[in-house]
Amino acid sequence: MKPGRIFGRDLPGQFMAARLRAVTSELSTPERVGRGREYAATDAVLSLDVHAGEVTATVLGSRAQPYEVTVRVTPGDGPPARHEVDARCTCPDEPEAAWLLCKHAVAALIMLAGEVAHDPDLLVRWRRPRAGGDPAASTITEPAAPPAPTPVDADAAPSRAITIDALDAILRMPDGAVVPEIPDLEPLPGAPLPGDLDRALTLALDVLRGERCPRDTELDVSG
Q1: What phi and psi values does residue 18 have, to the nearest 5 degrees?
Q2: How far is CA 217 from the centre of its chain?
Q3: pTM of the entire predicted model
Q4: Which pairs count as long-range contacts for 196-203, CB under 8 Å and 24+ apart, including other chains?
Q5: N or C of the chain: less Cβ packing under 10 Å?
Q6: Which residue, of 69, 103, 138, is where some domain finishes?
């Protein structure tokens, strides 16, 4: 059909059409939405056909050959949610994300909203399952949500055991590097180090000097 009916007052599908226009605005960037509105207002949408599960449109763009747009939707009732819409267009525009609509698809949906305002049954037809199609193929799923963080038990004391292998991996010098001379270090007078910290410091210095590289040993600094 040739779209072109405009919004008016007291139309039977006015509310549904307004919701569809709002969803369309969420499905693209402000620049593409603005251009799509210009296309719709200047009769660039040459044809619009509503089928069960999809809308097909021919939209005139910047080239002589019009672009072919297909907008699919999952089966349901009323205007679809953003994640239930998927569009394809023959134009060279490549939006930054797969779910973003090009300006030609935006124009097609705006014109569809205008038709729905006058004839709400068009929306009902669009939300029906595609005839003869695989029901699974008509389902557009939302992007998977990131996994929830692992809950932390506030009452459990964290383990502070440091393995010698881990310490050796952190302090290992690169091949060919020259190990500098490390002077003997002693605690400041009047400020003795706790026993575990003193042993950890001694071990670290031995590893740096290359005098010690023990394996399969665990140093517990949980105190």
Answers
A1: -65, -40
A2: 44
A3: 0.57
A4: 196/220, 196/221, 196/223, 197/221, 200/162, 203/164, 203/167
A5: C
A6: 138
